[in-house]
Write a structure and sequence with these properties.
single chain, about 180 residues, alpha+beta, eight-stranded antiparallel sheet, 6 helices, 8 strands, globular
Length: about 180
């Protein structure tokens, strides 16, 4: 299933801020809409500032024990109390993609503790990863998070940690788009 994140002057999420953490600036939009299975129809009908597309896939860097731990706290999106969100598109450099799967796994978890560190936040922050690289999109991944307004500081703590890990050395572009449900 293809999902689209569309920044325009309409949508059910108000864009609170857009920050280029690494790489080029990104177009500003007033609002955003996340939709499934309706690829590209908004480009024709609405004034679109940007559109990012991705698909959900299998967990590529997790082992069985990590999968069991992740499954203990399922990520449930669209909960009414989770009125804040973040869309973080990420692009990694060619060096990352030249690594073998096990080398990427080593950097992702053994060196960076991406999953291990993130586990303690999963009861407060819902998340979903979309893959975009295989679609020819400008970013490799679209990371989507939903949380309560009161948990935004926890989300900031999580992203601050991940941005100082060995894995982040391979990131060449990261945009942090903060949103509020309206």
């Amino acid at each position: 299933m293809i999902s689209s994140f569309i920044g325009s002057n309409e949508g059910n999420w108000l864009v609170r801020s857009t920050s280029a953490i690494k790489g080029s600036d990104f177009p500003i939009a007033e609002r955003m809409l996340r939709i499934d299975n309706e690829l590209n129809h908004w480009k024709v009908e609405k004034q679109v500032q940007w559109q990012l597309n991705g698909f959900n896939s299998n967990m590529r860097y997790t082992n069985r024990n990590e999968r069991k731990e992740l499954d203990k706290t399922p990520s449930i999106l669209n909960l009414p109390e989770n009125n804040f969100a973040a869309l973080i598109p990420i692009k990694k450099n060619d060096e990352w993609w030249q690594l073998t799967q096990d080398e990427r796994r080593n950097i992702f978890e053994e060196q960076s503790a991406h999953i291990g560190f993130s586990l303690k936040y999963l009861d407060k922050i819902s998340r979903k990863l979309y893959h975009s690289r295989d679609l020819g999109e400008p970013f490799d991944f679209l990371t989507w998070f939903e949380f309560k307004e009161t948990d935004e500081s926890l989300f900031n703590e999580l992203t601050d940690y991940l941005r100082y890990t060995p894995e982040w050395n391979y990131v060449i572009s990261e945009i942090d788009i903060r949103l509020e449900r309206i």
